[in-house]
């Protein structure tokens, strides 16, 4: 209600007074509520931020293979050589990831499949592929001479290497890596297959055996696991 | 009436032939899809052919496969034991049963046609005629495409 008389001022004063006596109290709960809401809001924001950071820090990468719970130094390949004849020294690859595979070139189905997937995994990694070394150890030295072995593996990817050597050294390496292999009985034409553990062994940049992948592992999963091992 | 009898006989005959043609002819009851093979590395003697067989009729056996591209052809089976050991053996009758109204898939890590003695390596883009023999459908032809999968 407006008033034009000087009485209006009094009215205002009266109103102020009325206002002044009541409600200092209702504002405190209101302030508390606002404060509480602000605190809650901040907590939510902080929580979300922490969770986002935390999931990266705390959630472990899930490998597409069997992981060794403890660090196991990868055994050296004594007595074995690369397909260029130089000693197969895994130490030369320290700092990089190494994938070892026991196979043979006369294997028409499994070995080509596995090596093709490995090649595809490397091609999916761009430059990082330079830090992954794939080596196939032949369990069939009678047929797989070093030149044949080298030519075979590089058919799949030009960075792959073969590893070979005398029967005894291969048998020792297989035993140490828990790999079974058995040459089949030759047929009338002298042909034979070789049964073999077709697991892929993953060695990390510290030279420790870390992961075992089955022969049917997919290229994408391998690429991700290699990236994880590279750190 | 008299003139319709020979027609009936002819019709019955035609129907009979048509029924017979449904099974045992070129495509009778069986169709092949996605026939393929990987290129082989130099100096590798053998290759593997893969394909999918769809069977529209009652169960039958895949008996054999042949191709002029190979010195000889066998049906093989790769398999993995519980502890990860891969072996390859000649596929037995049990492995070669094509199910009633079902599929049989020849694929990496499993059944495959082993092309023994390729001579020159199988090259990407090559097309290789292959003939499969079935116990009921007889000979069925397919063309294997060599590609880098």
**Rg of chain A, Cα atoms, Å:** 35 Å
Net shape of chain B: globular
Most extensive protein-chain contact, per-chain counts: A-B, 25 and 29 residues
Helix-strand category of chain B: mainly beta
Order of helices and strands of chain B: HEEEEEEEEEE
Counted by DSSP, the helix tally of chain A is: 6
Number of E strands of chain B = 10
| Spatial order of strands in the largest sheet of chain A | 1-9-8-3-4-5-2
Helix-strand makeup class of chain A: alpha+beta
Strand content of chain A: 15-25%
Q: How many alpha or pi helices of chain B?
A: 1
Radius of gyration of chain B: 20 Å
Strand content of chain B: over 45%
Mean pLDDT of chain A: 87
User: Mind describing the biggest β-sheet of chain A?
Assistant: 7 strands, mixed
Helicity level of chain B? 10-25%
Classify the helix fraction of chain A into a percent range.
Answer: 40-55%
Question: In brief, what are we looking at here?
Answer:
With 231 residues, chain A is α+β, with helices and mostly antiparallel strands. Chain A contains six helices and nine strands; from the N terminus they run H-H-E-E-E-H-E-H-E-H-E-E-E-E-H.
């Amino acid at each position: 209600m407006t008033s034009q008389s000087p009485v209006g001022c009094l009215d205002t004063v009266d109103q102020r007074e009325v206002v002044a006596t009541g409600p200092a109290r209702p504002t405190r709960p209101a302030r508390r509520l606002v404060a509480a809401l602000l605190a809650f809001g901040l907590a939510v924001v902080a929580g979300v931020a922490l969770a986002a950071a935390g999931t990266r820090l705390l959630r472990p990468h899930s490998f597409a293979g069997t992981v060794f719970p403890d660090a196991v130094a990868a055994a050296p390949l004594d007595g074995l050589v690369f397909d260029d004849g130089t000693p197969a020294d895994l130490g030369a690859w320290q700092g990089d990831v190494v994938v070892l595979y026991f196979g043979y070139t006369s294997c028409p189905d499994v070995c080509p499949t596995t090596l093709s997937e490995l090649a595809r995994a490397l091609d999916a990694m761009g430059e990082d592929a330079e830090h992954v070394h794939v080596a196939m150890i032949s369990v069939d030295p009678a047929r797989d001479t070093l030149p044949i072995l080298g030519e075979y593996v590089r058919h799949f990817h030009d960075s792959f290497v073969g590893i070979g050597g005398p029967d005894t050294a291969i048998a020792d390496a297989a035993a140490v890596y828990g790999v079974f292999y058995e040459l089949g009985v030759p047929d009338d034409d002298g042909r034979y297959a070789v049964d073999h553990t077709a697991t892929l062994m993953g060695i990390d940049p510290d030279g420790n055996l870390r992961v075992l992948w089955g022969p049917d592992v997919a290229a994408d999963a391998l690429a991700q696991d290699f990236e994880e091992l590279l750190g | 009436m008299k003139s319709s009898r020979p027609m009936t006989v002819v019709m019955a005959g035609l129907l009979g032939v048509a029924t017979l043609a449904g099974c045992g002819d070129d495509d009778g009851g069986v169709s092949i899809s996605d026939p393929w093979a990987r290129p082989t590395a130099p100096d590798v003697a053998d290759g593997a052919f893969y394909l999918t067989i769809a069977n529209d009729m009652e169960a039958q056996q895949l008996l054999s496969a042949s191709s002029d591209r190979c010195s000889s052809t066998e049906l093989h089976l790769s398999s993995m034991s519980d502890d990860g050991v891969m072996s390859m053996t000649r596929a037995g009758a049990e492995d070669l049963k094509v199910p009633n109204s079902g599929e049989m898939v020849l694929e990496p890590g499993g059944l495959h046609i082993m092309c023994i003695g390729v001579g020159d390596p199988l090259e990407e883009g090559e097309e290789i005629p292959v003939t499969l023999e079935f116990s009921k459908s007889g000979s069925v032809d397919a063309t294997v495409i060599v590609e880098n999968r």
